[in-house]
Each structure stands twice: as C-alpha cells, then as structure tokens.
Design brief:
alpha/beta; Rossmann fold; 3 domains; six-stranded mixed sheet; three-stranded mixed sheet; 12 helices
C-alpha cells in the first residue's frame, strides 16, 4: 500500500500538483483561523529576503539595516526658530493597562526602559533644559522626580519604579493639572512642554478635562502623547488644540521600534514663532568654573557637604552640577559647551546625498573612518545593482554637498545625530597650505 501511494505521488501532473498545494494552503489557513489568527495578522518577512550573487542573504540584511539607519536621517533640515531652553514634564501611565504584553516584555517595563533612554538623549540634545517626571496610578498623579537639569536623578527615580507593579486607573486630567502647576513658574524665555506615555483607553478624571485643555492653551503649554493601545479622541483633541492644529503631536506606537522613534522625536526642540521678531531678547547667564576646596562645605542646592562644585558668578553660592539655576539669586548657570551643543538645533547639518555608481569611482574609502567602499561593478551591472529603498545609496557612499567628500552610512548617522558637523567641512576649514612654514610649536611663521 505504501508503494502504491509513492507511485501515485510520483505520477501527479503539474495541474494536480498545484491543486494539492492550494488544498494544503487552505488547510493551514483553516488551522490558523481555528487558533484565532486571521490571515491579515501574518507577516511574511521571509519574502523580503533575496539571495545575493554569492548565494547568501548577507547583502540583503545589510541593506535592510542601512535602510533603517537612512530613514532616521531623511528629515527636514530647514533652519527654524526653536526654543533651545526647554521645560518638559514626562508623564508615565502606571495603571493596570500597562501590564499588557503586546509590547515585549510588557508595556510597563518597556516604557520604563525607553523613559531612561529618553532622559539621556533629551539632555544630550538639550543640555540647558529642565525635565521632570510624573506618574499616573489609582486615579491620582504623583511626582516621580522634581524638575531639574540632572539626568542622573531622573534615571534613578525611574529605575525605582521597576520594583512596583502597575495598578488602578489613570487620570489624565490630574496629571495635566500637576504638570501645569510645575510649569507655571518657569521663565517665559523657555518652552513649556508635556510628554505623556499613555497606554489606557480611558481616563478617570474628577472634573471636566476640556477646562484643563483651555487652561493649558492659556498658559502656552504644548502637550504631546504617545499612545500604546489605540487612538483616543480626547488625546487627539488635546494634542491638536495645544499645538496650534498640528495633528502629528499625537502618535500611536505600532511596535517597539516605532514606540522608541515617537519618543525620540520629542528630543528635538519645537519650532517657535515669536510675535516680536525684530525685538532683541537677552537672557543673563553665568559661566562658573569648577573649584575644589580644601575643606568640605555645604552646597546651596542639596545642603550636602562636598569639596568640589561651581561657584555662582553673581553671589558666590556653590552648586554641585551644571546646568542649574542658582538657589540663592536665581541666575542660570551653564558651561560654554552646553551652549555650543544647543546651537546645532538652530542650524542643523544638511542631509547628505546618495552617490550613484557613475560617480562612485571618485572614492575608495570613507573620508572619516577609512572604511573601504564596495568596488565599482561593470557598467552593465549598474542598473541591476541599484537599491529601490528611498534614500539608500547603491554604492554605499553618501556625499556632503559642501565639501564633496564621501562617507559611509555609519559616519553619516554619527555626524547628523551626535557631532552635528561634517568632518570634511571641518578639516577643510582648518587646513593649512603645504607651502606655509610651521615652527616646532605649531605656530604659523608668516603671520
């Protein structure tokens, strides 16, 4: 019987074979539906993988990674007036809805991890800004960390939440009211912003939240919300009204990566449009130097004994770290490097363009890191080797339109997201002609 079955399978015609495959597909589809999985829920990720000329999929994987990196760089680099001194309140939903596991490992743990990354990135991009953290639980809002410019304090406070479990219902109105009260006394030269990580589909509010929205608009507080479940009507209305009709201020995370991207978008200062464009507004700041005392003394910010610190340039009070506001006289104390790091938001580095194969022979290695580029294939293969992903370069080369140097994708990412300067332009501006004599101490003798 087994032999006859094998003979029958071997004699199946092409049409019968296709019919048998379709039956198997319908059987598998029926089993999936019995388990509760619909057809549209399945993602055929393996269909995007294509073997390369060497028989491996390494080139395809590298292309997908490069497309993901390049996608983050394709942003609008138009210089805009932005508020580089920001005051932001981060509100975390700590209710029972955050225990869902649709985002791995859970919404709660993933939100805490991304919140820590957000704090680090926020102060990296906005070193002279202030940040505070609030939590929503049991219909109440509570303070996780006070408004300050020290990222270590915020990260430590967020880490302490890992020992607690999400419970109760959130109150969006209570969180907004507490955040508005914390931002009420902030100076007018800075922005007032609220970022809400909201994983619930309801809000247990004690009053009319529409009155809270009107108060936020009066106090010029901008609210952005990252939803983790689905779009909520009151959240969309809140973000749209407090951001002047901008509907992009409210986003719902599709997956873990999209959740992180929505949070990291807030690290860029929002565009501001002052009513008095021609009037000059000056802000007094102090630039103290670090001092180390022979004997410990109390700092003005924490009242703790320490030997090192920064002395206020106006009243001489000692603070532990910068940037900070002097507790005695209220003077803003920063370092010159903090001001320089905030400058790149006003004049962002322009996007580099893709280099086609026709111009790829100009360079053989990355100008910044020296990484060897792929060799240029024959001309008849240029069309077949082109990538179709938007913004990707088929030659793995990206060119700065100012200095005309070629860079790899990693240097492109590092230059735009970390240093915010082009290595080629910087080296070109500092280049010394070969015929200029230089002394042993590095000084130009022709001056």
């Amino acid at each position: 019987m087994a032999d006859s079955d094998e003979e029958y399978v071997g004699d199946v015609t092409e049409d019968e074979d296709d019919l048998q495959v379709s039956r198997n597909d319908r059987t598998r589809s029926g089993k999936r539906k019995q388990r509760g999985a619909a057809e549209w829920e399945l993602s055929r990720t393996w269909e995007t993988l294509v073997e390369g000329a060497d028989g491996t999929i390494s080139s395809t994987v590298e292309g997908l990674l490069e497309a993901g990196k390049r996608k983050r760089l394709l942003k609008d680099t138009t210089p805009l007036q932005r508020g580089i001194i920001r005051h932001l309140i981060l509100i975390l939903d700590l209710s029972q809805s955050m225990s869902e596991k649709d985002l791995r490992p859970t919404r709660y743990l993933l939100s805490l991890r991304y919140a820590q990354e957000f704090v680090r990135e926020f102060f990296e991009q906005n070193p002279i800004s202030q940040l505070g953290v609030l939590g929503l639980r049991d219909g109440l809002a509570f303070r996780v960390s006070d408004i300050s410019g020290n990222p270590t304090e915020h990260i430590t406070s967020i880490q302490n939440l890992r020992t607690q479990d999400p419970k109760g219902l959130p109150s969006l109105q209570n969180g907004l009211e507490m955040a508005r009260g914390a931002l009420f006394h902030t100076p007018s030269h800075g922005t007032r912003e609220i970022l809400v990580i909201f994983g619930s589909l309801l809000s247990s509010d004690p009053g009319d939240i529409h009155q809270t929205i009107n108060t936020l608009i009066t106090d010029k507080v901008r609210v952005r919300i990252v939803g983790l479940a689905a779009q909520v009507a009151i959240c969309r209305e809140l973000c749209t009204r407090t951001n002047g009709g901008d509907e992009t201020a409210y986003g719902v995370a599709l997956n873990e990566q999209h959740f992180r991207e929505l949070m990291m978008e807030v690290t860029t200062p929002p565009a501001t449009y002052s009513e008095k464009r021609n009037a000059s507004s000056l802000l007094m700041m102090g630039f103290p130097s670090r001092t180390v005392e022979a004997h410990p003394s109390l700092c003005a910010c924490h009242s703790k004994p320490s030997r090192g610190g920064y002395l206020c340039s106006r009243c001489g009070s000692k603070v532990c770290s910068l940037p900070a506001e002097c507790p005695a006289c209220g003077l803003t104390l920063i370092l010159s490097t903090h001001l320089a790091r905030s400058y790149h938001h006003l004049f962002p580095l322009i996007n580099w363009v893709e280099v086609p194969w026709s111009r790829a022979s100009i360079s053989s290695a990355c100008f910044a890191c020296g990484l060897q580029f792929p060799p240029v294939p024959p001309k008849e293969q240029w069309h077949t080797a082109e990538h179709h992903a938007k913004g990707m370069s088929a030659s793995s080369r990206y060119e700065c339109t100012a200095c005309r140097n070629h860079f790899c994708i990693d240097c492109d990412l590092f230059a735009h997201e970390v240093v915010h300067n082009c290595p080629g332009c910087q080296s070109k501006s500092m280049r010394v002609p070969d015929d200029v004599p230089i002394t042993s101490d590095g000084m130009d003798t022709t001056a």
